[in-house]
Amino acid sequence: MLRRLLFLLCLLTLLPLPAAARLAGPQEAWHNPGQIRDLAQVRSSGVLRVLVNQSRNSSGEVKGEPIGIEYRRLRAFEQYLNRTADDGSQLTLKLIPMAKDQLLAALQRGEGDLVAPGEVVPRHGRGDISPSAPVMANVPLVLVSRKGARRYQRLEQLSGKSLALPTGSAAGEVIQQINERLAQRKLSPIAIEWVDPTLAVEDVLEMVHAGILPFSVVELPIAQRWAKVLPNLQLEQGVVFSRDGDMSWFVRRDATNLRASIDQFLKTYRAPSDADAAFQRVYLPLYKVHDPLAKTARKRLESVRPVLQRFADQHEFDWLNLAAVAFKESTLNPTARGTGSATGLMQITPATARKVGVGNVHQLENNVQASAKYLASIRRQYFNSPHFNERERMAFTLAAYNMGPERVQRLRAEARRRGLNPNQWFFQVERIAAEQLGMGVVSYVNSVNKYFFAFHRERNALEQNQRVASAKR
User: Which family does the similarity line name (predicted)?
Assistant: First the structure.
């Protein structure tokens, strides 16, 4: 009986951990997920666990410069708590990034002491959660489009249109309510396109700015902030979906002293006048995505599609991933010349091609073959574990393609050390990359990811010619 019990215990240790457990990393003295803590317990532990929205807009930091809108405010709150400690004890913040739609549930489970989302968060049915005094009250949710697009004055004009929203957007519930009113008037509903979870609000705005997505609905302060670095954004401030939501922090309802400290702090806190200086300095010079399905790009894609599909099939890639890399590297131009010896559609160097046994990368087929073989070798050697989902596996492969696999592995090790998920590039390992290296590789992977989803939205149309040709044969 004892041996059977020991055998079962061994089997249990081999089972994969749930996602939440993997994200938390190794248990530390301050981390007790089931425990609900008020201010006294927080001070005693020396750590305030803050669940932050993982988007770069909310909680990002780049090479020591804060660019997330909550980052400065949280650091000021840390200083406030240390200043007001009766016994002079000091505490530090532990930022725990996760998807916006998971934040309040994690707070309920006791995985953090405080939620600082940086966006409007619906909290229906969560009676044990208490919002702070508003960081910003009555925040308008407004329509955002691209300059040059049709202007709108009334919500009814959006009947039958589709709006792209990031996961967890407060606009989702609001649009459902608007659709009920449209139905009463026998008008078509407004459709919601929920974008992939690897895309946060800033990614959606960049895709609207490029013309990849036609519309989104965003909190006005967030739209105004990103319009400073995305000048083609068009804010339709007359088309307001809601003014009812507040931007607040959240604590457990029974953490009354922590809530009181937060409210007292927010009464007197004023953001510095240069709060967005670092944000603009980081993002203004960054590469901005373009529409990979504009007229010229679409023609180029059709001409190189057979080659991309052939080598994607050989190396078990979705051909649209190779197309996304090609657009990022050369805007789908097979004759492009890059810096150094990088050349062709995939901007591969002769030296890299030789490593995978391919010569003469000036020929289109060899260029694509060398790139696909190199990407496949990186994936096979470094990111073949079943712990990666396919989007994350591709993201890590792209990061290694851009900066070298050894550097990516060091970033993963640092992410693990900090309690982040080393098997998730988006919003986890990329945070370490941004902090240590800047936005170069982060921007590269994000751009290719956006191009993939731009192509994926049009997959049927892009593959239609192939189906027609196959039918004729």
Answer: Belongs to the bacterial solute-binding protein 3 family.
> What is the C-alpha to C-alpha distance for residues 250 and 262, in angstroms, rounded to an integer?
9
Residue 442 φ then ψ, to 5°: -60, -45
318 residue type, one letter: D
Considering the domain architecture, whether residues 330 and 429 belong to the same structural domain is answered as yes
Other C-beta atoms closer than 10 Å to the C-beta of 188 total: 12
The full DSSP string for 449-468 is: HHHHHHHHHTHHHHTHHHHH
Total of domains in the chain: 3
Nearby residues of 285 by Cβ (< 8 Å), 6 or more positions away: none
Whether residue 271 sits in one domain with residue 313 = no
Question: Against a cut of 0.85, is the pTM above it?
Answer: yes
Look at residue 159 and tell me if it is in a domain: yes
Read off the pLDDT band of 401 (50, 70, 90): very high
Report the alpha-carbon distance of residue 468 to residue 161 in Å, rounded.
30
Give per-residue pLDDT as tens, 358-379. 999 999 999 999 999 999 999 9
Q: Residue 332, SS3?
A: coil
Helix axes 405-417, 430-437, angle to 10 degrees: 110
Q: Which domain holds residue 49?
A: 17-135+248-282
Buried b (16+ CB within 10 A) or exposed e, 83-111: eeeeeeeebebbbbbbbbbbbbebbeeeb
Shortest CA distance to 35 belongs to which of 113, 102, 143?
113
